[in-house]
Design brief:
The structure holds two protein chains of two kinds. A seven-stranded mixed sheet of chain A has the order 6-5-4-3-2-1-22. A seven-stranded mixed sheet of chain A has the order 7-8-9-10-11-20-21, covered by helices on one side. In chain A, helix 3 (77-85) packs across helix 5 (123-131). Chain A has 19 helices and 30 strands. Chain A is an alpha/beta fold. Chain B is of the alpha+beta class. Chain B is 56% helix and 9% strand. Chain B is built from 44 helices and 16 strands. In chain B, the strands form five sheets. In chain B, strands 8, 10, 11, 14, 15 and 16 form a six-stranded mixed sheet that branches. In chain B, helix 3 (49-61) runs parallel beside helix 5 (86-100) and helix 26 packs parallel to helix 29 (542-555). In chain B, 37% of the residues are buried. Classes of the chains: A alpha/beta, B alpha+beta. The interface between A and B is large, with 62 and 53 residues.
């Protein structure tokens, strides 16, 4: 029995360290190769020894697919390919290929330089690893080998995120990676065609959430920033370098443009600048608006957003604007320079530039900090979000937070409705949930089974799900036969099974359906005729000829749409079925009716015998 | 030799076929071999299929007269039988279809042939094309039942074809020709009664998506032709909603909509339960579900159709805005709900804390439905869609539904307000317009107003102006709301001073709508103090004027308000009432009689008397006939003066008054011209006199053009009378020319032209028509003589006044023409001048309004603005915002150019048939050409300075 086997090495009932093994029709594919943020020991990477104990990974895996550039989906890649050892192809989209090494390098720096870890992958390893990458385009079908093919679909989420369809013969699996079903300011919504895979492996981060419209949140965000800036305050937005940062930039940039604002927006340099560069290059991966206006202007070439200027952070605070005299109708920009917006990394205010700026600005109640994402416990971000106003900094210093603290979540994952929508779009035979918490998955699993009537699985890490498949076997049919059979049916009945007479020839592992004559010819066989004969006893005292005549008239009246003939030699034919009446010598009262038909007319023949066995109707005489 | 052969073919052909042609079409006057003959020769010459195809393509480019169509068709058919190449046969088949569409040709004679060749055809493509031809024939003969039945039979026969193209065409044929009355077919000569709907319905499950689409389209076509579709189709169509192909789904959505409109009240069961609901509700739910379809084409289609489903029950309607939120399995309130709650609880914090939106109550896991089959959240999804086309469609649908249901309007408000922040300007604009349309049904809450007003800072002028329009008709619930609106509008004013007029107008309506809310704000707004006199504000400050406009308009219906004014306010009122009378209403101010008396309402005649006055003065004029010329002139002069004054006083009647005054002026001019004693004097002596008469003729012509094209609401009756007047003027001109010019040659041309015009102007004075035979035969001198007597006898025609008549007018807002700084640019290059103008009562401004630039050297330039430069902010009003490119050679000093708007007209475009333009190909050009122009705005002077180019 053919089957599809799926084993999550990471992200099974968990978020982080995405790594899923799929065996489909003898091919082994690894989906994503991520790290876990929660661990600093061996557990941060998937356990690759599970795949094979002593053999080389290259021999076992046919390919590796990376869905997008987030570290929990690609963080373990250099370790896997260079340190564990894998030389096969690694597939990812072009933007992922471009941005992924930046993030890996950043990750390496933090791990090695900051935390001083040994035995970590090196920069050279990242480079070597990236050499093994094969980039794919959206909707491009890539032949990995003769049988295995993969195809990427747009997934939203971050620039270059893709869903992948893995197909061998007629069996297929779709892996969604992370995706977003509602468009945002810079990316579109995920989309997949009705590809009807055997299995859909979907993320389920927000399995138990149905989200509100994004517009309210955007409006709130803009209003808050605008108000603060109008008051002459400063706004700090701690962000991670990629993804949300660009979305917020676009949001603010267009708002500034619309509202004709002059207040400066700064972006902390470094990683983000590099990333913005890539965003400029990958316009086809963004949303409708950016794609359409690209001819006039690349939206990522920000007009209002400038590289960060250190002097700005040190600017003591909102200066009091001198009362505008009658002469000066327009305020020079210099006077407003105290107000402004700064994007700074990292997003949780635990270190780096964002924390520095925060410390400088926290004391002024006119300023504001907006946290655009979730903060891990223990970080400054989490503390201020939970309402702490006095923070202990290193060196026993106490920082009083007077600035306003806002929380504005812009998440780029599909919510429960979105997941259901995608499942509905793809129409899979079964669904497998990964990348989510077990408890939440449970709910979604139940819903999917109830409402979509589709099998649903949620394996834990290391647990294997086996799905039996019934692969369809293609059979070639000769055109002549098909047309002949088609001509018999009158009305089109598209999806109903139809009876077809033919001969199936199996030769060299391919199947052909041909007409029996052709089969005989091809195989060089002579045709044998198979005839069935049957005797039916009739009570009739008359002569044979008369009996035959009675049978003839009876059949003629019953079988209106068949050709019933009375032959001169006294026999009766119905199409090719022959009926002959004979008088056995022993009993003159009964006549024996001989019915004979060929194998092809089996249906009609058996009908006739059963009809005649019931007897002839009494003659009116 | 070859040349000789060719010649032979030609000769032979002319010998054989030509006579046939003559017999078939007797009226034909052939001077050269007919088209069919030429075609035949070409086709005979063709050696290869490619050649033949080329000939056919060339042939198809030229039109064929109705008389020779049949001949051509015969030739084509003949070749068709001989032709082996399917592509040539295909072309012939398509030509047959084209030819049968020729006007004036009845294609029933070629139908038999077409059906005949259909039966022997093997190629699927040619078959499909032939069926298309049959369709063309069938649609040409809608009356002929027998032919239609035959065609339907043919179509049914070919429905089983293996090619999708053929099946497509068959279905199309069925949809277009399938008989509407089943009963008729039944008793018609025993032909098997075909239930077209059943046949088409069977193909809903065809294996080819293109055929399925064609089947649905055919069904829709049947519906369009007035056949009532069976309700059973509904279930079939519902199955098609889950089709794999988007075009099928899109068509199915349409079909479901059609059925739901046909049988809104019938009851359908809900699958998997015992409940039943109305069909329209069920269909609504299904279409709502399609708003989250995978293909955006289907989504647009579905969103659009939702708007027109007005019979749906309110319960279902409101579900479309409902999306049950949850977070970690706990029920969560939407931001809208929270905002509403905050507002009603009186708090003003806007939920800034983290966890403020934390979910409260637990959700019963069993009860949550993630995939609603019903209408849940359809609009929430539609408005959030990735493609702006879908969002616009959703906004439009919301608008239509909200207009029919006030409670829904109230509910969708939050969503519309959210759309004000869409990233695409078109969507924002559309949602603002939508909001304006439903504003009668709604009252804005303060927090909503806040969001609305935030958009006032938008840098796009269209958005701001649309928003001003919206505020004009918005209901605000509190005085804080009014205050907020005022503050934001003033902010807008300082940021974009060009919005001044729009903002003032907006405040005018805001004030007059909410007098009671403005009342408590007055002291604060005027910054008056109970004890101290405050400084008098600057009267020229646009912001202060804006505040005053708001207050004065509120005071109109609030008699207690003026008591709060300080002295200077009254002075300012008097000033504004005079300078901005369209914004400041007349107030009944205590003890201020003197100030306001000049324009006090008592003097302005009430609506009815003035109407009466107008009627009376016009009636008086109709007795003109019986007066002596002197008296008639005087009467006309008086009446014109009266009418003009009336028009100035009563803006509602201005159009009518101006219109009739212009007409009377024409009459006056005509009378004056005819009055001259020197008419009978011999030609040479007449020279001096001609000045007045010809000037009069010219002016009358101008005035008649104005009457015809500058007024909207002119009906045919009036047009005829105007034409009558113009013809009189032309006759006058002719006479004058006849008398002043020597020699007959120029006169001949003029006479001919005049007679042509008379000919085409059928409704010219009856007598003139009676005289037509004489006029036609007589010499120019005689014509002039007849005309002269005719003209003097011609009666004054009564001009019936149309119901509504408005004079087109335009005001150029920008350039203002006040600037002393010349616009400098390098000579030979261009400079763009922004032109902003409002147009009132202009019909079809895209085609008629032009911008004219007059340079000081007399050079005039006419600019055609792009259609997109016209916006339509309200009924009867248009706004032209365009750029005019100026260029000139170098000047030594700055000089002024004049910019004005012109109304282009073309009198022949109004008349359906113009006899002297018989050549069919000419007419489309004539339609767009401009016969003349009427300036209809005050010219604005712009100072420009082209500098010589520096080398």
């Amino acid at each position: 029995m053919p089957e599809i086997r799926v084993t999550p090495l990471g992200a099974g009932q968990d978020v982080g360290r995405s790594c899923i093994l799929v065996s489909i029709a003898g091919k082994n594919v690894m989906l994503d190769c991520g790290m876990h943020m929660g661990f600093n020991d061996d557990r941060r990477f998937p356990d690759f020894s599970y795949i094979t104990q002593n053999g080389r990974l290259t021999d076992f895996l046919d390919c590796v697919i990376i869905s997008h550039f987030h570290l929990d989906h690609c963080g373990a890649l250099p370790y896997f390919s260079e340190m564990v050892g894998y030389d096969g192809p690694i597939y990812m989209t072009h933007p992922t290929q471009a941005i992924c090494p930046i993030l890996l390098e950043d990750y390496r720096k933090i791990a090695v330089d900051k935390k001083g870890e040994a035995n970590f992958f090196t920069s050279q390893m990242i480079k070597d690893c990236m050499k093994k990458v094969v980039a794919v385009h959206l909707h491009q079908t890539v032949q990995v080998d003769d049988e295995l093919e993969i195809k990427a679909y747009y997934a939203g989420h971050v620039l270059g995120a893709a869903m992948f369809q893995i197909k061998v013969g007629s069996e297929s699996v779709v892996y969604t990676g992370d995706y977003n079903m509602t468009p945002d300011r810079h990316l579109g919504a995920a989309w997949i065609d009705k590809c009807r895979p055997n299995l859909l492996i979907t993320e389920s981060t927000y399995a138990t959430t149905i989200r509100d419209s994004k517009r309210c949140r955007e409006r709130d965000f803009l209003k808050k920033v605008h108000e603060t800036v109008e008051r002459g305050g400063k706004v700090l937005i701690p962000v991670f370098a990629l993804g949300r940062a660009q979305e917020l930039c676009i949001l603010l940039e267009t708002f500034w443009e619309r509202m004709n604002l002059k207040v400066p927006i700064y972006f902390s340099t470094g990683l983000t600048e590099k990333a913005n560069h890539y965003y400029k290059l990958f316009i086809p991966w963004t949303n409708q608006k950016i794609r359409k206006t690209f001819v006039q202007r690349n939206m990522f070439e920000f007009k209002h957003i400038k590289a960060f200027d250190r002097a700005f952070a040190d600017n003591p605070g909102p200066m009091v604007r001198p009362a505008a005299g009658p002469a000066s109708t327009s305020t020079p920009v210099g006077l407003l320079s105290s107000a402004g917006v700064v994007f700074a990394t990292p997003g949780m205010l635990h270190a780096g530039q964002s924390l520095q700026i925060f410390r400088k600005w926290a004391g002024n109640e006119k300023n504001m900090v907006i946290m655009p994402g979730y903060c891990v416990q223990g970080t400054v971000g989490h503390k201020i979000l939970s309402g702490q106003r006095k923070l202990e900094m290193e060196g026993r210093q106490v920082l009083e937070v007077k600035m306003q603290v806002e929380y504005m979540s812009f998440s780029a994952h599909a919510d429960a409705k979105g997941i259901m929508q995608l499942v509905g779009q793809a129409e899979p035979e079964s669904v497998l949930l990964v990348h989510g918490e077990a408890k939440k998955m449970e709910f979604l699993k139940q819903k999917i089974e109830q409402e979509l009537r589709v099998n649903c699985y949620m394996p834990a890490n290391g647990e294997t799900v086996t799905l039996p498949t019934s692969p369809s076997i293609p059979v070639g049919i000769s055109l002549g036969l098909l047309k002949r059979e088609m001509a018999q049916g009158l009305l089109p009945e598209a999806k109903k099974p139809r009876l077809l007479h033919g001969t199936l020839i199996m030769k060299d592992s391919n199947f052909r359906l041909v007409s029996s004559e052709q089969a005989l010819k091809e195989l060089g066989l002579a045709e044998h005729q198979l005839r069935f004969t049957c005797r039916v006893h009739l009570h009739d005292t008359r002569k044979e000829q008369e009996t035959a005549l009675r049978v003839y008239s009876h059949l003629k009246s019953v079988l209106k749409d068949h050709c019933v003939q009375h032959l001169p030699d006294g026999s009766v034919t119905v199409e090719s079925v022959l009926l002959q009446a004979a008088a056995p010598s022993e009993d003159p009262g009964t006549k024996v009716l001989l019915v004979s038909w060929t194998y092809q007319d089996e249906e009609l023949g058996s009908f006739l015998t059963s009809l005649l066995k019931k007897g002839l109707p009494q003659a009116p005489s | 030799m070859a040349a000789h052969l060719k010649k032979r073919v030609y000769e032979e052909f002319t010998k054989v076929v030509q006579p046939q042609e003559e017999i078939a079409t007797k009226k034909l006057r052939l001077t050269k071999p007919s088209k069919s003959a030429a075609l035949h020769i070409d086709l005979c010459k063709a050696t290869s299929p490619a050649d033949a195809l080329q000939y056919l393509l060339q042939f198809a480019r030229k039109p064929v007269e109705a008389e020779s169509v049949e001949g051509v068709v015969r030739i084509l058919l003949e070749h068709y039988y001989k032709e082996n190449d399917p592509s040539v046969r295909l072309k012939i088949a398509s030509l047959l279809g084209l030819l049968s569409k020729t006007a004036g040709f009845s294609p029933d004679c070629i139908m038999d042939d077409a059906i005949n060749i259909l039966q022997n055809e093997k190629s699927h493509q040619v078959l499909a094309q032939l069926l298309d031809t049959l369709l063309a024939i069938g649609t040409k003969l809608p009356e002929n039942q027998a032919i239609q039945m035959r065609l339907v039979d043919v179509a049914c026969k070919h429905l089983t074809d293996t090619s999708h193209g053929v099946r497509n065409k068959c279905l199309q044929l069925l949809g277009n020709l399938g008989s509407l009355e089943k009963s008729v077919t039944k008793d018609a000569e025993g032909l098997a009664a075909r239930d077209v709907q059943k046949i088409i319905g069977d193909y809903f499950s065809d294996q080819d998506p293109r055929v399925r689409t064609a089947a649905i389209k055919a069904m829709l076509q049947l519906h369009e032709r007035g056949l009532k579709l069976h309700q059973t189709i509904y279930n079939q169509a519902c199955k098609l909603l889950s089709d794999d192909y988007e075009q099928v789904r899109s068509a199915a959505v349409q079909l479901i909509w059609v059925v739901s409109q046909l049988y809104p009240e019938s009851i359908v069961p809900i699958p998997s339960s015992n409940e039943e609901i109305r069909l329209v509700d069920d269909a609504f739910g299904k279409i709502c579900h399609m708003v989250s379809d995978g293909s955006w084409v289907v989504r647009v289609q579905a969103a659009k159709l939702l708007g027109s489903m007005e019979q749906v029950s309110s319960h279902f309607l409101e579900q479309t805005l409902d999306k049950k939120l949850m977070s970690d399995l706990r029920r969560k309130r939407t931001a809208h709900e929270r905002a509403k709650e905050l507002y009603s609880s009186g708090e003003f914090s806007s939920g800034r804390k983290w966890g403020d939106d934390a979910p409260k109550e637990e959700v019963d896991t069993g009860a949550v439905n993630l995939i609603e089959s019903g209408a849940c959240g359809a609009f929430v999804h539609g408005l959030e869609d990735e493609m702006y086309e879908v969002r616009i469609a959703a906004v439009e649908a919301l608008c239509m539904l909200a207009q029919s249901s006030p409670s829904f309007a109230e509910k969708c408000l939050d969503f519309l307000v959210d759309m004000f922040n869409d990233e695409i300007e078109e969507v924002r604009l559309q949602s603002i317009h939508t909001m304006r349309k439903i504003s009668n049904n709604i009252t804005l809450r303060e927090d909503q107003l806040d969001t609305v007003l935030a958009v006032l800072e938008d840098s796009s002028r269209d958005i701001r102006e649309a928003l001003h329009e919206l505020l004009c008709c918005t209901n605000v619930s509190t005085k804080e709301g009014i205050h907020l609106a005022l503050v934001e509008l003033l902010k807008n004013l300082t940021k974009y001073p060009t919005d001044r007029d729009s903002i003032w107008k907006c405040l005018k309506f805001l004030g007059s709508r909410h007098p009671t809310l403005v009342l408590p704000l007055v002291p604060e707004l005027l910054s008056t103090h109970p004890f101290f006199d405050t400084a008098e504000p600057d009267m020229d400050d646009p912001a202060y004027i804006a505040v005053l406009v708001l207050i004065f308009n509120a005071a109109k219906t609030c008699p207690t308000m003026p008591a709060l004014f300080s002295d200077h306010t009254f002075r300012h009122y008097a000033y504004l009432r005079d300078s901005l009378s369209h914004l400041v209403p007349a107030l009944r101010l205590p003890g201020r009689k003197l100030v306001s008396s000049a324009v006090s309402p008592s003097i302005i005649p009430q609506e009815d008397p003035s109407q009466q006055f107008l009627q009376q003065s016009l009636e008086r004029v109709y007795s003109l006939q019986h007066l002596d010329p002197q008296g008639a002139q005087e009467l006309l002069e008086f009446t014109i003066r009266d009418l003009q004054r009336l028009g100035e006083l009563q803006s509602e009647l201005a159009g009518v008054a101006d219109f009739s005054a212009t007409y009377l002026r024409c009459q006056l001019l005509l009378i004056k011209a005819l009055q001259e004693k020197l008419w009978n004097v011999a030609a040479p002596l007449y020279l001096k006199q001609s000045d007045l008469a010809s000037a009069a003729a010219k002016q009358i012509m101008e005035e008649t053009y104005k009457m015809e094209f500058m007024y909207s609401g002119v009906e045919n009756k009036q047009v005829v009378i105007i034409h009558h007047m113009r013809l009189q003027a032309k006759a006058l001109q002719l006479i004058v020319t006849a008398r002043t010019t020597r020699g007959l040659d120029p006169l001949f041309g003029m006479c001919e032209k005049f007679l042509q015009e008379v000919d085409f102007f059928q409704s010219f004075v009856d007598k003139l028509l009676d005289l037509m035979p004489r006029l036609m035969t007589s010499k120019p001198a005689e014509v002039v003589k007849i005309l002269q007597t005719m003209l003097r006898q011609s009666a004054f025609l009564h001009l019936p006044l149309p119901e509504q008549i408005h004079k087109a007018s335009a005001t150029i807002i920008e350039p203002a023409g006040e600037s002393d700084n010349p616009l400098r640019f390098t000579s030979g290059l261009v400079v763009a001048l922004d032109v902003d103008a409002t147009l009132e009562h202009v019909q079809d401004p895209q085609n008629t309004v032009k911008v004219q630039v007059l340079y000081p050297d007399g050079q005039a330039q006419m600019i055609h603005p792009k259609p997109a430069d016209f916006r339509n902010p309200g009924p009867g009003r248009h706004r032209l915002i365009t750029q005019v490119y100026l260029s000139h050679t170098a000047w030594t000093e700055a000089c002024q150019v004049e910019v004005r708007l012109l109304l282009a007209y073309n009198s022949s475009a109004r008349i359906p048939k113009c006899p002297w333009m018989e050549g069919g190909e000419m007419s489309p050009q004539v339609e767009t050409s401009i016969e003349g122009t009427i300036p209809f705005s005050k010219p604005v002077k712009v100072y420009i300075m082209p500098k010589p180019a520096r080398r």
